[in-house]
Amino acid sequence: MLEVRDLHSFYGDAHVLHGASLTVKPGEVVALLGRNGMGKSTLIRSIMRLAQPQVRKGTLTWKGQDLRPLTPHEVAARRIALVPQGRRLFASLTVLEHLTMLKPAKAQEGWTVDRVFSMFPRLAERKGHNGNQLSGGERQMLAVGRALMIDPELILMDEPSEGLAPVMVQHLETIIADLGKTGLGILLVEQNLYSALAVADRLYVLETGKVVHEASAESVRNDQSSLMRYLGVH
Known about the structure:
By secondary structure, this protein is an alpha/beta fold. It has 2 domains: 118 residues, 3-Layer(aba) Sandwich (Rossmann fold), CATH 3.40.50; 63 residues, no CATH class. It is built from 10 helices and 10 strands. The strands form 2 sheets. It has a 6-stranded mixed sheet, with helices on both faces. A 4-stranded antiparallel sheet has the order 2-1-4-5, with helices on one face. The protein is globular. The two termini are 34 Å apart.
């Protein structure tokens, strides 16, 4: 289980997270909501132990282990994967090369190239195409597929629906829901409330670096009024 407690993160002197706390259990899809600039991506970056931001207070534990002393590579080795905002693909690498960066193409255990292609048939059709030759939806499929190739137990997804056509958003929602059913924990950063509600088990709302609301997705589906005032959605 991922447990974040009283997290304070900074970019230089800018204090962005002001005591944020949340948990993600195995097989649970947890959505982190909030308007722009509230600290959602900062929280994801803090968990992955990227060079920025700096975590100056609080705890980050995964399955009881402290993540704070670890490098990003060491966090990934604990089977925590990141699907970054903006996809972050390599323009000159093919789909197949992206998927085999960390695991041989002939691997037979865990997530394999064939298993990713079965989930995303379009990637199989485009396996020889470079990252800069893919559509937005195809790039997002590849970003998710690449993350799965480390056989994660937890995936952090930062704004995965950003810039996608509605039909692709619906397809992505189905994929996220299916992954959650496999026992994979997912922390989903989203601005799209309705997309988050379609897949999440629980929701947190982040406002000015603090979690100001927590609820089950089911309760919010039945009564969204309490959430609307935090998100400014009408």
